[in-house]
Amino acid sequence: MNQYAKQRQARLASGWVEEEEDEIELAPPAPALPGLPQGQHAFTVDAAEAGQRLDLFLGHAATRAGAHLSRGRIKTLIGDGAVTIDAAPVGEAKTKVRAGQVVVVEVPEAAAAEPQGEDIPLSVVYEDDHLIVIDKPAGLVVHPAAGHESGTLVNALIAHCGASLSGIGGVKRPGIVHRIDKDTSGLLVVAKDDAAHQGLAALFADHGRTGSLVREYRAFVWGEPERTSGTVDAPVGRHTHQREKMAIMHGSKGREAVTHWEKLESFGGQASLLACRLETGRTHQIRVHMAHIGHPLLGDATYGSGFKTKASRLPETARAVLSNLHRQALHAAVLGFEHPVTGEVLLFESDLPADLAALEAALAGEAT
């Protein structure tokens, strides 16, 4: 057992991270339902449902049938003319249904994914019919966007999962419920069908406060915090002048952001290795919060630029390793959650990648 595993066991024993099912005070959410399969489905409105909006009725009817239709998916189907009431097409989701009416929905075959799949190597930690857990390398963008239309994790997943993608929202694509920065490495879970997407989205929206979600990062930071652990509770929002950056914001401009941290290792006071547990999931949250308390991440050119001179104070070996890092020293090391379909409690751990392991060794070697 490595030092991190031993430290993590001690933290779990003290209640620092909720992992075991019996440690969660509130009952986890019920497993998500499978998606409504392709084909025609008919539902009769009973007296108790009379007066409901069509979209609400269809959502409830699908649930009674042991399946799931999201509100967004229902709206799209109605707009596409795939829903009829007593054989007459319906054009608005807000249409009220009456007792005895027969509502028919035609669920089409899922459309081909866009963008196209690409043969990009993936480190698959876990995969089943509903979801996949990836250990993402640094440098890989999660989702296509301006400047990154190809070569992303989504492109790789479309190629890897192929026919097993059942059609999230009617399109054969992976469901991204959380993201990791391009230059951050580590664990990421992605949905392969509507059922998993629904359940995982609810878990991440709740941030693990009442459910089973656990997210823990390893962060190499400048300096050494005086305390062994702490919490940063500071709202994060888009920087007012530098739009590519996030910043601590006050009032209505910022969104709640909470990071719990614990010191794992100190390197002669020059740097430290922290475990950071997310209670919320804002863009660049750990990077912004660590800079806010005076301990920005090593290698973080965006939020730690003022600490460049500190690198010159490191011994030669550590300076050389840091110079070749070319990214922030941050790794998503632990990911745990209750499977949204099967209910199984899953916990995954990822060791430091080679570049961060080399950084740790160089820092530790110089600190002894």
Give an account of the 3D structure.
With 368 residues, the chain is of the alpha+beta class. The chain folds into three domains: 1-26 and 211-368, 2-Layer Sandwich (Pseudouridine synthase); 39-107, Structural Genomics Hypothetical 15.5 Kd Protein In mrcA-pckA Intergenic Region, Chain A, CATH 3.10.290; 109-206, Pseudouridine synthase (2-Layer Sandwich), CATH 3.30.2350.10. It has nine helices and 16 strands. It has helices spanning 3-13, 54-64, 71-79, 153-161, 194-206, 285-292, 308-311, 316-323, 354-367, and strands at 39-44, 83-85, 88-89, 102-107, 124-127, 131-136, 175-176, 185-191, 214-222, 229-233, 236-238, 246-248, 258-267, 271-278, 330-338, 345-349. Strands 5, 6, 7, 8, 9, 10, 13, 14, 15 and 16 form a ten-stranded mixed sheet that branches. Strand 2 and strand 3 form a beta hairpin. Helix 2 (54-64) packs across helix 3 and helix 8 (316-323) packs antiparallel against helix 9 (354-367). The chain is elongated and about 80 Å long. The model is unreliable at 1-30 (pLDDT under 50).
